[in-house]
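Folds vary. Our protein:
___
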Amino acid sequence: MQLTSQQSLPVSQAIAWQALNDVTMLQAAIPGCESLTLIGENEYEAALSVAIGPVKAKFKGKLKLSDLQPPESYRIAFEGQGGQAGHGKGTAQVRLEAVSANECLLHYEVQASVGGKIAQIGSRLIDMAAQKMANDFFASFNTLLQQRYAVAPAEPVPAAPARNPLQRLLDWLRKRLFG
């Protein structure tokens, strides 16, 4: 699975960098995060409750930050085990780009793989769940930034129109039947 996007953050690049390295803030923003604990230099242990379609599991895993270029970028390597539900691992490249004194863009590229029961669900459902988790994270993260740094709420960015479930099914059938 690959996930690439960018998000506008209502704070300076320096403040965004500080927030992205704040364990308390990240734990509050990550959907389903039960704990996020620093266990070494730039290394964390995490526990998350995740639901992807019919599969619900508690994952325990590790995150390691590398290639740190404050306040611009870093790489995250992650891996997690969810018992019978399966496992996942991957990397993410995170880059901050200053737009103005009070705004920056966060660019991210994630490459991940899953195995076990979760992998049997299907890539479309996994991709949709990953996108939803990313959207939920950034909605919470932006709210926390606004609260902590007393910035005015940003104008909502209209989401891309969601395809209804019937349209997704028809697209899937077309792809399977007609290549």
